[in-house]
Amino acid sequence: MELKYFLDVFGWSGSIMVLVSYALTLNKTKDFSKLCSYLNLLGGFLIAINCLYYNAMPSFVTNIIWTCIAVISIYRTRKHMESTEFRKRKRSKNMRNSVS
User: Which member of 2, 42, 68, 83 has the lowest number of beta carbons within 10 Å of its beta carbon?
Assistant: First the structure.
């Protein structure tokens, strides 16, 4: 009984996270893309655990794919941020060398 309760809480929590993520994407005044990626990652994973427990395989597979998409999005964002930061440091170093 306790396991079922926790897995239900996981499923509902994951659903709320995915819905909040979607709602944040509708906000045009601030960029929530990083937060949305993490909400989608955790939300999709929690829903997938719930679906696996209830043997809802189509929903389980869909949420595993959703989670993988979030992981790829986070990876690409981090990779882009690192390369952008590297280019900024390189430009800054070149500018200091050219001024000297």
Answer: 2
